[in-house]
Structures are given as structure tokens and as C-alpha cells.
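Q: What does the predicted 3D structure of ABC transporter permease look like?
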Amino acid sequence: METRPRSFYVLGAFFVLFLLFLYGPTFTIAILSFQGPQGGLTFPMRGVSLHWFFDLFQEQAVGDIWGSFRRSFALGLMVMITTVVVSVMGGLAFRKRFAGNVVLFYLVITALVIPSILVSLGVGLIFSQAGLPIHWASSGFGSQLTWTLPFGLLIMFAVFNRFDKSFEEAARDQGATNWQALRHVVLPIIAPSLIGVALFGFTLSYDEFARTLLTAGSYNTLPLEIYGMTTNVTTPVIFALGTLTTAFSLVIIGVFLLTVWSMNKRRAKQGSDAGKGMV
């Protein structure tokens, strides 16, 4: 029987500790959210129930939980759609060299290394000095795009760098216009990557705090609302909210992954049917 080296167990223990560090806080919040009506914010637990989940749907003494959720959801959809459209357009544009393309590329990537709170402060100042209202759907939307667009563009750059242009050339040889080649050939091929960009756009926006802190205006998004609740709420209802929002995020990720899986399965079936038709 082969004996594993000691380094194997050391690395295995390190990996387990890393997982505990990564997911331990989330599991702790989830466990504490199931406390009884007399439960507090720390261990030991005082009973087990769904009391605090039901309490979430009652009128809260502080905060606007469901209003902030609706705003975060709407903002996430806005950012997601814009990120996908602009990323595809940027990816298509960078397939050919043009004047200033290198400078433009680094300007886009620079947004990732600028501290988020400075971006939020800068966008807020621009809107304030321009006499424009600071609102989550305008200044908040713009500041979040500085976070999601670089990720979307990097994904699209990688996708189009590996894209085989012969598919487009074949479509044009068959009489397709540029738009038809894009719609019926390019977009279906890169569709799984577009799903990934959409997932990045929505989840990064839905969870973003720093870039929204000074640009949301009078109405909080969900991360800002949760932060505000940490200074006012002293019951496990905040843990129940955290558990539900985490579950919602996992559901969103699952829907996107299921969509990619079904698209790949459909594509494989179409390829198999086409192969049978040629025989």
C-alpha cells in the first residue's frame, strides 16, 4: 500500500482551515438565524425555530428591508444588461487595432485597482458639482459600472482572442450580412460566456457596498441597509436576513449555471443531429 507523504496531510489540513475561514462566518450566521424567540446575537443558542425568518416579513422598527432589496435587484438588472452589452461591443471593437486601443485598455483596467471608496467619492462629487441628483439609479449605477465593466471586458477579450473567425467567414460566404453573422453565428457561440458576464454583473452589483456608499442618495441598497441595521438591530433578525440574501445569491448562481448547462446540452444535441443527417 502506497504511503502518502507528510506534505499531503499538511496541505490537506491547510485547505480545510482555508474552507473554514472562507465559509465559517456564513455557516455561523445561518445557524444563529434559527434561534428561538429569546435568542441573541451570540452563542449559545436559545432554542431552535423559524421565528426570526417570519419576523422579517413583519413591519420592522428600523430600516426598509424589502424596499432596499427591490432597489438592489433593479440596480443589479440594470448593471447586468449594460455590462453584457458594452462588454460585447468592446470585445468586438478590440478584435482590430485602432488608435489609442492600448491606452484605452489600461484606462479600463485601472478602475479595478482604484480604491472603491475613492470611486464612490469621486462619482458623488461629480454629480453634486454638476447639480445632478445623487440617486442609486443614476450615480450609484455609474459607480457600479466602474466595477463590473472591467471584469466583463476582460472576459470578452479572452473569448474573442480564442474565437475562430472562419465561422463568420463561412456565414458571409453564404451571403450573410455582418449583422446576420453576429446574430446567428457569433452570439450563439459565445452565449455561455455572455451568461458568465451577466452573472458577474448582477452578483457584483447586488453585493457592492463601497462604490454605492456615497452614490446611493437617500435610498439605501440592500448592502447599505444591512450595514445600517448592524448599528440598530440587536436581534437575530439580521442573521435571518443574511441567510435569506445568501440563499437568494446561490439561487441566482444556480439559475445561471443551469442555463449554461442547458445551452451546452442543446448545442451538443444539435451537433449530434447534424452529424446523423450527414451520414
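A (community wiki): The C-alpha cells above were generated from the sequence. DSSP finds eleven helices and no strands in the chain. Residues 237-278 form the longest helix (42 residues).
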